[in-house]
Amino acid sequence: MDGEAFGHPGIEPKWTSSSKEGVGTALSDSSPIWFTLAYGILNEIYFPRVDNANTRDVQYLVTDGKTFLHEEKRDLEHHLEYADPRALAFRQTNSDAGGRYRITKETITDPLAPVVLVHTRFDALQSAAHQYQLFVLVAPHLGNQGMQNNGRAIELDGHNFLVAEREGTAVAVVASVPYLKRSCGFVGTSDGWTDLHHNLRMDWQFETATNGNIALMGQLDISEQSEWTLAIGFGASVEVAARAALSSLERGWEAARAEYTATWHDYCDHLLNLEEMSGDGGRTFLTSAMVLRAHEDRQHPGAMCASLSIPWGEIHGDQDIGGYHLVWPRDLCQSATGALAAGIERLPLRVLRYLASIQFADGGMPQNCWVDGRPYWTGIQLDEVAFPLILAWRLHDAGLLEDFDPYPMVRAGAAYLIKRGPASPQERWEEDAGISPSTLAAEIAALVCAAEIARARGDEQTNRLCLKTADYWAANIEQWTYTTRGTLGGCNEYYVRLDTLDPETLETDDDPNTGVLHINNIPAEESGFPVYDIIDGGFLELVRYGLRAATDEHILNSLKAYDATLKVLTPCGPSWRRYNHDGYGQKANGDAFDGEGVGRAWPLLTGERAHYEVAAGLDVKRYIKAMECFAGAGAMLPEQVWDTADIPDKLMYCGRPTGSAMPLVWA
What is the pLDDT of residues 349-375, one digit of tens each? Predict the structure, then answer.
C-alpha cells in the first residue's frame, strides 16, 4: 500500500440530514449500538451511548469503470420498507434509474455485539455482475467529531479491515466477501470518493490517514457472490472492534436477524392493541412505541435522548456536538407518559429513577444534558422541573413505583417551583422569560401531584403549602396570561404565548395587555412585538391538566385566534405552527435553518390538539390520520413539516419532513 494519504487534514467536516427514515437497535445490553437511515443509506451510528455519534454515513458506490459513477445517496432511486413490521428492521432498495442494477439492503444490529450488520444483494439487471465495480465508503466521525480521526487499512487473523479510531473509540469494517482494494484518505483531497471521480478507477491505496476528517473506502469482490453481509464493529480499541465485527460475521446473518427480531416481537407483545383506533392498521402506533424504546440508553437506563439526529446536520460540524441526541427532561417525561399510555410499564419507572439521579441539589433540573447528567445548555425551564413530579404521581397512582421512593425528588422539586415560580427564565420553546400558559399549567399540576404524594407520606405541611400555592396560581391564570386587547384572527381576547419579564427587575407586570416580547431566530430589528399580539397553543395544556374545562369561554376564544393565526392545512391534514413570527425552521426558499428561518408546522401540535378534542368529546380521527401521514414511509414522526408550496429541488414537499429532527421522540 501507499503509506500516509496526502491532503491533511481534509475539508471542514459536516454531519448529514436529520430526516431519518429509520432508526434501530437490538434490545440487548450486549449491544450498546444504534443506527439511523436516510436517503437510501446508513447515517449516524451511535456507540456506546445514545449521545455519542460515530459516523456521518456509510454507503456504496458503483461504477462500470468507463461511463458512470453512482453513489447510493445522490444518484439512485430509494425505497424503504420494514423487513419485519414488528421490529426496527429495515429493507432499503436503491435502484439505478437507467435500469442497469439494483441494491437491496437489510440493516440490523447484532444482539450479541456492538456491530451493525448490513445484508446486501446486488442485482445486475442489464450486464453480468463482474462488469460492475462496487465500493463501500465510510465517513467516521468518532466521538461526535469529524476531525482528529485516524484511519488505517489493517490485517487481523487473516482478514482485511478498514478501521478508524479516536480517543478510545474505534470502528472496524469488514465484509463476508473480500476486499480487492482498500484506502484511507482525507475528505476532499485524497479520499476514495475523490479518487473515483477522477477517472472512474480506484488508483489510490493509502494505508493511513491520520488526525483529520477522513474517509475509508474498499472495493468489494462481487464477481462470484451477489449477496454478502457488511459488518461495522465498534469497541474501545481497533482490535476489539475488529474482533466484534468478525464474530458477528462468523455467527451469521440469519442467526443475528432471528434474535434481533425476536427481541422486538417480545416487546410488541406487551403493547396495547390500538389497531381499531388507527387509520393504518396500527402501524404508526406500533412503530412509535418501538421508537420510544429505541432511544433509551444502555449505560444509563431511563435516559432517552430527544432524537437520534442532528437538526440541519448538513450545515453543522464539530462545534455542534449535541444535536438532539441529548436528554431534555420535558421530552423525557412526555416520552415516558406516552410509553405508559401504550402499555409499557417498566420504562416510565426507569425514567423516573434517572430523573431523580440528575436532579440538582436545589431541586432544579438541567435544561438538557448528556446521558450521564452533565448539563449541555444551562437555561432554567420550570416546566422541566414540574414534569418529573407529574410523572412520579402517575406511577404512584398506578401502583408502579415498586421499591422506588420518589418523595425526596418530589419534595425538592416542589420547593424549587414554589421558590422560583410561576415566572420561568425560559418557556417550553426554550427562548423567552415570563409566565406562559403551558409552563403555568405544568407547574400547577405538579404542585397538586406533589401535594398528593406528600399527603400519602403524612407530610401535611408540604401538602398544604403545595395546594395553597397551586390554588393561588390557578386563580390568576387569566390575570397573568389572558389579553383583552388582542388583534389576532379578529379576536380581542385570548391567552398569549407569554407575559414577559421586565428586563430591569426580572419580574412580570402581571398584565398581558402591555409589554414587548422579543422573538429569537429572526432579524433583531424585526424581533419586538406587543405581548398581546403573540399566541401559541400552550393554553391547551390548561385543559389537558384539568385546570380549565374544554368549553371554558377563555379556551374557546383562544382557539379562534389560535386557528386563525397558526393553523395550516397540508395534504396530510391540519397542523399548527408554534407561535406567530417564529423563526426556528426551514427558510422561505427551502434552505436549512442557520440561526434564522421560518417556524414550520409541528406534527406534535396536531397531537396536542387531538388531546383537546378528546377532552371536548369530539372526534379525533382526522388528527390520527394526519399524524400517520406525517410519519411517512418509515413511520417516523418529524419535528417539523414543510407547510407551504413545494420546492422540489430542495426536497421540500407540503406535509413532508423539513431538515429538523426526525424522529422527534416527543412526537
Answer: 999 999 999 999 999 999 999 999 999
